[in-house]
């Protein structure tokens, strides 16, 4: 694909679930910021600053449009990454806002550890629920006034929270709050999130062909549950000796509630370019990813020595080989230019302590993946 022309023929990148490659338009957008209008947003009156403000504002709107959410109900804030965003929310939730915390056994350490810390701080119980093979949740497991924190797509095998709308509805009906970890869904499975109504969605731009950046999309009425404690410049309209006035008190500046200090303006603008790029992809490119995913999945599923974790083909495929250390296998693949992830992928509790798997190999594909890449991976694994 021309937008990844910098990718050398012998470089086979299979770690998109960690961070995707960046297409040339995204790289160009970031470079343009630094070379054409490098400036502080929301602070200056000169033209460079006005250009930054316009492009940052446009990115906020692009995020909402991409998720098919209304700007009347939601706002967009930018952070460091998904982990930072989840922690930023949980550590500022008011005491007594919820009575218990719910998360699942297949969660990334981002929500898993953050909910653990939150429960201890609030001195409330924390419950870990199981997910069905397709990623769904039994809504009867959600109690009254619970804080529910779940992923909508797993970084182990891509399984999705198929009944996400039912889970959100049940949580709200019981007086609870729900935060969705969307890190693995935004690039290839965003449709599962579109037109849903969680209280907050956290994701990382670097997993959706964008720069290193985190995003929080939150309901406007959600901030009534927050008690801001992580504060600083860019968040206030005025400061007295012992008092400050938050900009978020103005409905047009709600996003500042999660944006203390100077923001990564160039990265925010480049995220806008990545959304434009994703929206412009022809069906043939998306179809190619499906074809390459199925090809690799069929090989892994049919090979007698390979133990595939996936129940269905997704761009995220995890497996192990009996009697062969996955870290050594990963090194053997790396020696042939194949870049794969090994270990437990920050899902230690489920993979190690629940399923008792050995360390795994993860091959995660993207829109840059070529048919010859899959051929090389299959050839290398067959030989090993």
Mean pLDDT: 97
As a percent range, the share of helical residues equals: 25-40%
Alpha carbon gyration radius: 21 Å
Shape label: globular
Number of strands: 15
* Count of DSSP H/I helices: 10
Q: Structural class of the helix and strand makeup?
A: alpha/beta
* Tally of domains: 2
The neighbouring-strand order within the major sheet is 2-8-7-6-5-3-4
Characterize the main sheet. Answer: 7 strands, mixed
Task: Throw out a few tags for this protein.
Aspartate Aminotransferase, domain 2, alpha/beta, four-stranded antiparallel sheet, 384 residues, 10 helices
Describe this structure in words.
This protein has 384 residues and is of the alpha/beta class. It has two domains: 2-19 and 282-383, Aspartate Aminotransferase, domain 1 (Alpha-Beta Complex), CATH 3.90.1150; 37-278, Type I PLP-dependent aspartate aminotransferase-like (Major domain) (Aspartate Aminotransferase, domain 2, 3-Layer(aba) Sandwich), CATH 3.40.640. 34% of the residues lie in helices and 17% in strands. It has ten helices and 15 strands. A seven-stranded mixed sheet has the order 2-8-7-6-5-3-4, sandwiched between helices. A four-stranded antiparallel sheet has the order 11-12-15-14, with helices on one face. A hairpin with a 4-residue loop joins strand 9 and strand 10 (244-246).
